[in-house]
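User: Could you check the structure of this?
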Amino acid sequence: MQRSIEDRIVILGDIRIRAKSIKNYGIATKQRYYEKVYDCRTERRHFLFFDYYADVLEWKGDKRAISDSNYYDYKNSVKHFNGRHRVYKDDEGKIVSSNEEANDKDFFIGKEAYLYITTYQKDNFIFFESEAGFDIREKCKEIDKIFQ
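Assistant: Sure, the predicted structure tokens are below.
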């Protein structure tokens, strides 16, 4: 037996919305500002008669979103050598600052898809693809099925 729209609830991570409350929804893209998050690996090096180990930061595509005002603050502080440092993931997955000075290539602008939902109660929800914890396109299809 198909449940009526009155009874359906859409689950979006920790958020639950009654289907009858959804006024508008869809997938869109938005310009976002990012800071590169590096991986850190230890590399053995040799200098004259000495062996030593050095941490090497390597970017493999990880990033974290930052606000547009932070993006411009960071870019300006880097240009004026204001002590901004690169960030990396430690062994526990936490993002921490390194000892390496950041440069303007450590920040960039990109586009990201997001699921938006507006309710009749004037709530606006945005779930960015990289942060949602679920597939936003599949969730949009699920909502489509509810309203068919």
